């Protein structure tokens, strides 16, 4: 039986395959940029109601308090934007473990199957402090190995996955919410 995330990936695959074809045939860079932006929005909006795949231990403590207070089982991303919940989510961030920038680069810069690329879409609840730690260490939107030596001078360690970034930044996590 497919879960919510798998169903969404399957539905998006057809749309993204068509967008990839349009992108490939388009020579105007402004149009291509718009397609990339549209893809980001499409992915974000499509997954708003899908619960996170992982949660940091610190964020789990915060969410456990909220679960008791509001008597809910799951916290999808869109809940934090609702006015009556906003103040409770000040210290939490819904994070794309594999940055969308990387997924979109794969969608439009490779011939890899869209469904396989989308299966890399992984999300997690982390604290705002943990998010700042990732950003401070250079992992805001780049969590892949360096392609050239120039980037190595930026001071961040070469990584092969989001899991290694979390480990280097000392962010322990667990499965799902």
Compose a concise summary of this entry.
Helices cover 53% and strands 9% of the residues. By secondary structure, the protein is an alpha+beta fold.
Question: Could you walk me through the main structural features you see in this protein, from its secondary elements to its overall organization?
Answer:
α1 packs antiparallel against α2. The chain is α+β, with helices and mostly antiparallel strands and 177 residues long. A four-stranded mixed β-sheet has the order 2-3-1-4. Residues 148-156 have low confidence and may be disordered. It has nine helices and four strands; from the N terminus they run ααβααβααβαααβ.
SS-derived structural category: alpha+beta
Count of helices? 9
What percent strand?
5-15%
Largest sheet: 4 strands, mixed
Distance between the termini: 20 Å
Q: What average pLDDT do the residues reach?
A: 81
User: Biggest sheet, strands in spatial order?
Assistant: 2-3-1-4
Features:
177 residues, 9 helices
Outline the fold blueprint.
Blueprint: H1 4-25, H2 29-46, E1 54-56, H3 57-70, H4 83-86, E2 92-96, H5 100-109, H6 114-118, E3 123-127, H7 128-136, H8 149-152, H9 162-168, E4 173-175
Parallel strand pairs: 1-3
Antiparallel strand pairs: 1-4, 2-3
